[in-house]
Amino acid sequence: MRPGDESDPPLFTVTPMFPTFLFVHDHPDPSAMNQQLTAFSYGARAADPEGRSVSGRNSWQSQPLRPHPELQPLMGFVEETIARVRVYLDIDARFSFRITDTWININGKGSYNATHIHGGVYFGGVYYVKTHEGCGHIQFHEPSNIRESHCPPYARITPRNCFVQQCAAKAGRLCIFPAYLPHEVTENTVDDERISIAFNVAGE
Ligand SMILES: [Fe+2]
């Protein structure tokens, strides 16, 4: 057997420990729902041009949304995804989740979202209603500052050693992530607006 043969026994094993999961679920056919949600989002902004400012900079964020028939298809998709997350993470079947604090983000040119976490809940999530090239992406930061102060210099940044990981914004894409995970949204650099709907997942 020559060194490098695939039949060589491995020199060591690698076990990812204490992993942090980002769940990404692309809707199989989001066009009709996104059209409806786009109209709903612009209607909400027209009704409340001030909105509110949480993590958004130069953007419009809605007040927390009340249950609405226009949101039902999206909420169904979110609930279906949470059910898959529940199975993946072996969450106790007796424990109930509820979706709270749903809100709309409309990000025009020059807008971004500052780094933040979603305090006091289990998961945060975002669904992309309207996106385009250059509209900005969500990026997540290593949650442990202990690791950051104990790292050697890396020759190149890869998913094995990075401190920041990005997930591309794409219409029809739903992302669910641990609420403690710091995240931000990079700047929208073009004229088209990006629309997303964010939410929190808490316990009953
Ligand atoms: Fe967020």
Provide structural commentary.
This protein is of the alpha+beta class. The chain has one domain: q2cbj1_9rhob like domain (Jelly Rolls). Helices cover 19% and strands 29% of the residues. It has three helices and eleven strands. The chain has helices at residues 31-47, 72-88, 145-148, and strands at 23-26, 56-57, 60-61, 97-107, 112-116, 123-130, 138-141, 164-167, 173-178, 183-185, 194-203. The protein has a six-stranded antiparallel sheet. A five-stranded antiparallel sheet has the order 2-5-10-7-8, with no helix packed on it. The longest helix has 17 residues, at 31-47. The radius of gyration is 19 Å and the shape is globular. The mean pLDDT is 93. Bound molecules: fe (ii) ion (FE2). The site of fe (ii) ion (FE2) has 6 residues, from loops. Fe (ii) ion is lined by residues 55, 116, 118, 124, 183, 198.
Task: Please outline what is shown here.
This protein has 204 residues and is an alpha+beta fold. The protein has helices spanning 31-47, 72-88, 145-148, and strands spanning 23-26, 56-57, 60-61, 97-107, 112-116, 123-130, 138-141, 164-167, 173-178, 183-185, 194-203.
Notable features of this structure?
single chain, binds fe (ii) ion, about 200 residues, six-stranded antiparallel β-sheet, five-stranded antiparallel β-sheet, Jelly Rolls, 3 helices, alpha+beta
Identify the bound ligands: fe (ii) ion
Provide a count of the helices. Answer: 3
What value does the Rg take, in angstroms? Answer: 19 Å
Residue windows where pLDDT falls under 50 for at least 5 positions: none
At CATH level 3, the topology is Jelly Rolls
